[in-house]
Structure formats: structure tokens, C-alpha cells
Specification:
- Among the domains are: about 80 residues, no CATH class; about 200 residues, no CATH class.
- It is globular and about 70 Å long.
- The strands form 2 sheets. It has a 5-stranded antiparallel beta sheet, sandwiched between helices.
- The chain is α+β, with helices and mostly antiparallel strands.
- Strand 4 and strand 5 form a beta hairpin.
- It has 21 helices and 8 strands.
Length: about 500
């Protein structure tokens, strides 16, 4: 057996030091690997040829990845990105990529925020002034209450506070004082519930070429100008490095290479058409009674849905994800639509009419036979929930009518009324901006605001979720959600989930 390192991601500053005539590109790896199945030569020889003949390698990529539709070859090429000055709202859209993607964000638990925020380009000059005034009030809450919340955590967790004190006495630096960092982190997490979705974030991100191409194409048609700008910038920094692997992002280059028009109708129209179509259906059928609503078991903000009909589940997911309806109302409308065969056929035809040969189906088509939930979660909660990318996550827009999540610590330090006032002001400006700016109005809302989320997950993935999010170290908000989700799972399948729980409790669970 021979094991050889074929290539790896290296720092761009090192690549820049290579001789001027060197073309440094991950395209050579994908081109070489694409030939493995049909070329008798050894893999190192194929890589050598690709490195020496980059133009030929690029032609090969175009022919194999796009001409023959072997898109998986593009997954051998990886890109790393530093992304700064991006809003929390745009980050949610960027991180919707699940496979061939890795993200590490600057944590709001460990970093004290300085109040930096993104100003949406959609806003007029007058509205920008109103927005800045709102941000000022939101940030003031964070800064005014952070010290109080820190004292609260030290007072209410005496064992950790003692560990922090002893570590300080031994000369442990603040950076390495784990107990102190934990307590301060809890305070920062709770203080951030007052911060808006325009708050700046930073992350390191890695995409393979296939995932990168999909992100560029999809965000090019985003409802947010910030995401459209991000799409352009991702394309600009990679188009010279690996032109053969992101050709679907450039209609002109695609036409030159394949002599046919690149169809972007799916990215341009499918989502907006679904929203418009679902609104028409709601206006037409809302309130019409129909038998056959599935059994739904609920616990506070979590519901588990016991339904196995594939068409009905998918139609319901489409209605739910393109509206602000509850899961029950979404199922009612789906049942009415599918009760007539011709009407049901028309529904799916409308949903799929912009799909081309290069396009995947909408994610709602994953919402089928696994365990299915509807959750109502805060933005802070969702920021952690979205990391569980192998589950199917379908999220509505943020909806102030769902109320807010108030950390118990904020109630304990008597800052609840102050937070409610921040929410009131945020919702007031959101309501004023919504008719003008659509999705961009959500920049006004804060981490305490809520949205509905649909989840479909198999038991194996739910076990993983439970291990992490029911653990003693999990953040309290998502920990409560996870606990109620698994309580519902145990009602639906008590034997399958007998070992679910946080990893800190696993040995006790197994003993029982």
C-alpha cells in the first residue's frame, strides 16, 4: 500500500511566493482524478501531466464536469475564504450550504462585541438615520447590562466562580482561565439577545468547487443586496484561480464553451414564484376544512408531526416555508389541494416549472418520511441550530408576532422591561420598513426575536443533536429546545430513543 499526500489547502501568501510562471490551481487535482476511471496510468503520473498542462486540464474539467455532468469531480478542489464585515442575517443565507462546506465563526460567547454593524444598501438616507438610532439603543443595552449579567453568573455558579478565582491566584492568564471564560461567555450570550441581525460577524469558510459554484449562483438572486454583493465577490476572487470549475456561474463563458444558453431560471424565479403562488393558495383555501390532518404532539414551542404521506409532507413544507403559517394550517391547505388529483398535479407542476437539468429540487422535497418537527426558536437559538446541517432545516422569515425569548438572567437583573422596550422599537421600525424593503427589514430585529422552523431528521442525526445540545455545556436556549424535541421523539418512538440525552448523562442512561 502507498499513501501519498496529493495536495492540500495552503495559505495564499505562500502561493504568491511561487515562481511567476507557476499556475497554482486546484483544478489540476480534479482534472487528474477525473481521468482515473478511464486512464491506465498511475494517479501520480496523471497529476504530473495535469500540473504541467494546466490549459489541457481546464479543458478536461469543462468536458467532464459539465459536458458529461460528472459534477462530483469538482469536489476535489477546495477553497478557503476569510469573510469579514458580514451581517448575521446574510450569514444565515451563506451557511445554508451543507455538504462540501465548513464554517468557523467568531464566537459571540468568547468575544466582547464592539457594536459594529452592517448598513443595508437598500435603505434610503432618511431610513438609514432611523436605523442607526435603533442600533445605538440595542448596543447600549448590551454594553450597559454585560457587567451586571457577568456578576449574576459568578454569583449563581459559585463552584465555577471559585475555580476561576483559584486559577487567577495561580497566575493563569485570562485567556487560559476556562472557568472564568465560561461564566463571562454565558453573560455575553445572554446580553446579545438585544443585538440586531445587522450585527457584524467574521468567519473562516471552506467550500469545495461544486458547493462554491452553487453558492455563487443562488446568492446572485438573493432578496438581500448584501448577499448579491457576496456572490459577486466570491466569483471575483476565484474566477482566475479555477475558471473551469465555476463555469456555471458565468452565462457568457458557459455559452462559449457549450454553445447553449445557461438557464438560471431556477435561481431567478423558483423561490419568488413559490412565495407568490403559495400566497394565492392561502387567499383561496385558508379556512376551508378538510379531514386527514396528521397527528401532531406538541410541547410549548415544539411540535412533532406523525405523517408518512410523501406528497402531503412535501406540499405542506412548500406552503409552510413560503408563508408564515403554522404547521397545522399548512397541512390543512395541502390536504385541500391534494384532495383533487388535477389540482395536486397542477400544484407540483407550478413549483417545478423553472427546474433545469443542472438544478437540484427545492429543499422542501426532503421533508418526507423522517421524524418531522415544527419549532419556534429565537435568532440566538437558530444560530446554533443551523450548524446541524445534515438535518433538513426549513426556516420562515422572522416573525415578531411569535413573541421574543428573554434569558432568565435578564429577568433576574431586572432588565426585562428594558429589553421589551428595545424589542418594541425594533418591531416598530421593522413594520415601517417591511413594505419598502421586504426581507431587508429583518436587519432591524434582534436575537430575541423568533421564527418558525421545520426540521426533518432521521433518528441517528437526532441522537447526534441530542448528545451535543442536551449536554451540560450546551447554551440554555437550544438546550431547552433539544430537551423538548427529544421528549416528543420518545413519545413517538420510545424504544428507538431510549439512549438519547446529553453526552454527560450517557453512562447513567445506559445503566438505566
Amino acid at each position: 500500500m502507498k499513501v501519498t499526500v496529493a495536495g492540500f489547502n495552503i495559505d495564499k501568501n505562500l502561493i504568491d511566493k511561487l515562481p511567476e510562471d507557476t499556475i497554482a490551481t486546484p483544478e489540476t487535482i480534479s482534472a487528474a482524478y477525473a481521468r482515473i476511471s478511464r486512464d491506465p496510468r498511475d494517479v501520480p503520473e496523471l497529476r504530473k501531466e495535469a500540473r504541467e498542462q494546466v490549459k489541457k486540464a481546464r479543458r478536461s474539467n469543462k468536458a467532464i464536469v459539465f459536458g458529461m455532468s460528472h459534477h462530483s469531480v469538482a469536489e476535489h478542489a477546495y477553497f478557503n475564504f476569510d469573510i469579514l464585515q458580514i451581517s448575521r442575517l446574510a450569514l444565515e443565507e451563506l451557511e445554508a450550504r451543507r455538504i462540501g462546506a465548513a464554517y468557523t465563526e467568531k464566537s459571540q460567547r468568547y468575544i466582547t462585541l464592539k457594536g459594529d454593524f452592517v448598513i443595508p444598501k437598500e435603505f434610503s438616507d432618511d431610513d438609514e438615520k432611523k436605523f442607526k438610532e435603533l442600533i445605538k439603543a440595542q448596543n447600549k443595552f448590551y454594553l450597559d447590562n454585560l457587567e451586571k449579567l457577568t456578576k449574576f453568573q459568578f454569583y449563581n455558579n459559585p463552584e465555577l466562580a471559585e475555580q476561576a478565582r483559584l486559577a487567577e491566584e495561580k497566575g493563569t492568564s485570562d485567556k487560559m482561565n476556562r472557568a472564568k471564560n465560561t461564566l463571562e461567555g454565558w453573560a455575553k450570550e445572554d446580553a446579545r439577545y438585544a443585538l440586531c441581525l445587522a450585527t457584524q460577524a467574521q468567519l473562516g469558510m471552506s467550500f469545495n468547487a461544486r458547493t462554491l459554484e452553487h453558492a455563487i449562483r443562488k446568492m446572485r438572486h438573493s432578496q438581500l443586496e448584501e448577499c448579491r454583493e457576496l456572490s459577486r465577490k466570491l466569483y471575483d476572487v476565484t474566477k482566475e484561480i479555477a475558471p473551469s470549475l465555476i463555469i456555471l456561474t458565468d452565462p457568457d463563458e458557459f455559452k462559449k464553451a457549450f454553445k447553449v444558453e445557461l438557464k438560471n431560471d431556477n435561481f431567478k424565479y423558483t423561490r419568488s414564484n413559490m412565495k407568490k403562488y403559495v400566497k394565492e393558495l392561502i387567499d383561496k383555501y385558508y379556512g376551508e376544512l378538510h379531514e386527514g390532518i396528521p397527528e401532531i404532539i406538541e410541547d410549548e414551542h415544539e411540535k412533532i408531526i406523525l405523517e408518512s404521506n410523501v406528497d402531503r409532507n412535501i406540499a405542506t413544507a412548500i406552503i409552510h416555508n413560503n408563508s408564515l403559517l403554522s404547521i397545522e394550517d399548512s397541512y390543512r391547505i395541502a390536504c385541500v389541494i391534494l384532495s383533487d388529483e388535477a389540482r395536486g398535479r397542477s400544484f407540483f407542476a407550478e413549483v417545478l416549472k423553472y427546474i433545469s437539468a443542472f438544478d437540484s429540487l427545492p429543499r422542501e422535497f426532503e421533508f418526507t418520511g423522517e421524524l418531522k418537527y415544527e419549532l419556534v426558536v429565537s435568532a440566538s437559538n437558530y444560530a446554533q441550530l443551523k450548524r446541524h446541517r445534515l438535518m433538513t432545516l426549513l426556516s420562515q422569515g422572522y416573525d415578531p408576532s411569535l413573541g421574543i425569548t428573554i434569558p432568565p438572567s435578564i429577568k433576574a437583573i431586572n432588565a426585562e422591561d428594558e429589553l421589551l422596550e428595545i424589542c418594541r422599537r425594533s418591531e416598530e421600525l421593522y413594520s415601517e420598513f417591511l413594505p419598502k424593503y421586504g426581507k431587508a427589514a429583518e436587519y432591524c430585529l434582534i436575537n430575541a426575536h423568533r421564527r418558525r422552523v421545520l426540521i426533518a431528521a432521521n433518528p441517528r442525526e437526532l441522537y447526534h443533536f441530542s448528545r451535543l445540545r442536551e449536554d451540560e455545556h450546551a447554551q440554555w436556549d437550544i438546550k431547552e429546545t433539544a430537551g423538548r424535541m427529544m421528549k416528543l421523539a420518545k413519545k413517538a418512538a420510545p424504544l428507538s430513543f431510549m439512549l438519547s440525552g446529553g453526552k454527560d448523562k450517557f453512562e447513567n442512561l445506559r445503566e438505566k
